[in-house]
Write a structure and sequence with these properties.
The chain is an alpha+beta fold. The chain is flat, with a radius of gyration of 34 Å. The relative contact order is 0.07.
Amino acid sequence: MPHTEHRTIDFFAEDALPAPRTTPAEAELIAARGLGIDAHAEALGSQQDANFLLQDGNGTAVAVLKIANPAFGPVEIEAQDTAADLIASACPDLRVATVLRHPDGTPRRTTVDTDGGPAVARLLRHLPGGALSGPRHMSPGTVAAMGTLVARVSTALRDFRHPGLDRVLQWDLRHADRVVAALAGHIDEPERRSAVEDATAEAWARVQELAAALPRQAVHLDLTDDNLLRRPGSRVPMPDGIIDFGDLTTSWAIGELAVALSSVLHHDGVEPHHVLPAVRAFHAVRPLSAAEAEALWPLVVMRAGGLVVSGRQQAAVDADNTYATGALDREWRIFEQAVRLPLPVMTRLVRNAIGFADVPVTADDPELPLLRDITGDRIAVLDLSTDSDSMDAGAWLDTDAEEAHSAAALAKGAAATATRYAQARLSLAPALSTRSGATVPTGIDLRLGRAAVIQAPGAGKVLSAGAGIMEITHGPFVLTVSFPAAAAVVTAGATVRAGDDLVHLPAGSRARIALRTSDSPAVPPLVRPEYAAGWLPLTADPAPLLGLAATDREERTDLLERRSGVFATVQEHYYATPPRIERGWRHHLLSTEGRSYLDIVNNVTPLGHAHPRVEQAVARQLRRLNTNSRFHYASVVEFTERLAALLPEPLDTVFLVNSGSEAVDLGLRLAIGASGRPDVVAVREAYHGWTYASDAVSTSLQDNPNALATRPGWVHTVDSPNSYRGRHRGTHAARYAPEAVAVIDELAATGRPAGAFVSETFYGNAGGVALPDGYLAEVYAAVRRHGGLAVADEVQAGYGRLGHWFWGFEQQQVVPDIVCVAKAMGNGHPLGAVITSRPVADRYREQGYFFSSTGGSPVSSVVGLTVLDALRDEDLQGNAVRVGGHLKNRLQALADRYPVIGAVHGSGLYLGLELVRDRANLEPATEETAELCDRMLDLGVIVQPTGDHLNILKIKPPLCIDTTAADFFADTLDLALTQLGHAG
């Protein structure tokens, strides 16, 4: 057939579609003689076409030469170029590989001879940036951006018509069943071949049920990670470019999204649930119909199966095509992930993601209770959730937590105990795990305090009965009963009536009961929370069969929205989609889904979360008295004596407040009042609090981008003494102190001597950077020389966190005039303090009196004492030395392997990991740090960025953290950095 004839491809009429065998030298001749461009040609990968990057003599890319497969006719090429132009016009912010044109508007195309016959060659716009392809993990933002882009393309092509769309392609999902049937023989391994054939047969059957309701339109049909290009300069891959319109055709519109989703599945660390951000984003732009939502995952499976069989066939017919052969492992991983969960589960997960959630199915009340002679009021229901008191004091970590809870209930006289259906069981949450545990039950676990008979709750048929398990019908459901210590007394195939014996169970027996819909696949007894929305709609709560109330499954997904509705938005929360944390224990944080996270950021609780001594002390004191410090009671005296004793002379007088902000504010007022001078010198890029005075001296640009421009006239700043990324680095950091002294001297010379100098004693906002040796000694001396006072902000660094020093000023070998403390003092209870000398404190009288309603209350004082006792008794400062030193060594070892780690700052358990794009110019890796924090959350670690550039991981865990947890953090960080492509 002449190549110029009006024709389109029919894949099934072709034996194979090997790519044209064109060398780079031949490509250069085609470009020069046929398309008028002299350039160097470099081969690019393609499965069925031949692509070359054309570069000029300077190595600058000028175009892409695309030689289409000879099987594709000119009318098809014309359709592709027209569609590309259409998308470029409809979406001007997207970059599209459109055909280059002559001045008269005609495309730069020609026909060339290839080993397979005449083929269309043309010049396409080169798009820099690189594809999203490769193993790198795809973060939720990238996946969502893919979904948005795919939806926009789908919308742009909705009304496009062209004769060149009338094609029969192997990639058209309307023909996926034929493709698998025709090419499955190329899979040599029988097990893999059977797996592909079985999975695609099931998926195709479901698609056929929906096919008539699926809209059809023009589709690109290859918007994959290979053909979506990342925005140039984007540090976290974000797609904005589209190439390769070779699969353009008319097909089901939803196939566009199915193809894109499948390409995400092979990336490192990606599971099926990780594609849901793309589904939501697509739906937000181009809403899915109910039929499309149902068909989406079956089509993902069809695409995955098609990739496997097509890849094997292409490798067989085109063995020299490294692009095709190199994709085989990736394509198999896509298939494995696509079929990882049953179709009904993934379909319901998709539906739930876009607001099409199924209404929970319920079973009718039984004719008779499942347990003969044991009524619901004799069954103790165990609460094993995050909110349960039974999980206090770390009980969730005990492997026999459920057994102990059940035994206690039976000992109190319960005839049986039962767990709750669909309620995440914290007792099953693995600690220090990069993968969530299967914590959500799809049925109920029973333990019997006495012998009992399981009887038929109604008429039904026994589907199976064997050792330890049986299944019978129960209305539209299948009732499964598992009983390890007994055997069924009925046989498969038998018909039973209400009250018939099913199983005889001795006292102490355990049993599990579950209800699933009759057409559902087998449902595991426990599922991971990410997939619970897919599994639970296939089940029903069996509690009514026991005479118990069903679990309240009303969705409460609006908590974050409610927070935004009443909570000032300036009070931000961690993460865009944060887990709901309702419990903590030591260095663990626990979500309501039963996920355990390692807490690396919480310096508010140095003793660890839910410390028993603190809890007991607070409860005991609340039972007795809590009032203000104007009353006379012992604890406030004992606490302030203990606190003052921790400081050197002459710091012997204490004010108690509620927070670090208040402490710094009061510290400044004391300094200004005692010195009689209103001007204050502060260090740039620091954060001290939110009150008027503490905010005025805070110049962190992340906390207030306008801090330097809006600070009041009485605040004067000196350069940030950052020896890593400041103006003076390394040994040159010694210059910071003389420069600060010069500022202080200049203020005095102009008649405005500083009344105070305030700074952190260990540079926290910079990620735990130590001040240059001698810095505070020189600066304190200068401010005192002019009658001012030195104010030390120990809110973050103090209380033993640095390990080698209890106070940060000890590292500098100085004694401040005023010390401000908070955070660690109360282990989460609001407690702060200012400690100064008696003469300075007495000068406050000239400004009036001081009073704090809850600062120094009996409860606050008891908390403060208890924290000091525990710090001493548990040697937590020593732990900061030991575990902090070990962790810092681990982090420094990672820095040797990952160029993105610029430095490891800090001491003890006050550490910072600074991420940079270039170790020479120290360009901050801000976006990369945010992406890393999100990935770490998914892997079970809560860590957050700090610093003016938000490029430093702040590592300030509870001081009780142990070496095992520190190693888990380092190992997980190692994994995340690798998955995100940061390996050197």
